[in-house]
Amino acid sequence: MKNNQAPYLLTILQNTAFNEGEHxxxxxxxxxxxxxxxxxDTSSLYLILNGRARVVANITLNSEKTIHPGxxxxxxxxxxxxxxxxxxxxxxxxxxxxxxxxxxVIENKHLEQFLNSHPEHGLAFYxxxxxxxxxxxxxxxxxxxxxxxxxxxxxxxxxxxxHTCRCRPRG
Length: 171
Known about the structure:
By secondary structure, the chain is of the alpha+beta class. 39% of the residues lie in helices and 26% in strands.
């Protein structure tokens, strides 16, 4: 989702059949506050209304050392928690507020009920989720290939691959 472009989810939140306080709520988080913890089972989807949050991973390097790199910053109208919404699994990363944030927390069961009873909204919503996931997958692939290339180069493996690989185009 491009910043400053209102997502379709915002249209759903503004629908009179999907009420704040009943189906979703606005929560505020202070800078530095944890919004979501890896392993949480919140059964919710999140939309940043204002502010900036960071996706933070827990990466275990060895049995004694774990690092917590920031993976991506999320800003106004970015969503998160969509994988848990789709596959009903626990959240796979941490989310931390970088600035003070206002975040819409949408209960999965209420959103699913709304989308099932309003299929015209369901189609647009799921198309947008698919686009968002595709963009994130492409960005992840780019990062993974860059890290692989860096690792191969660092270990000197890239040079041995150049000399031993005599790849031919398929034809």
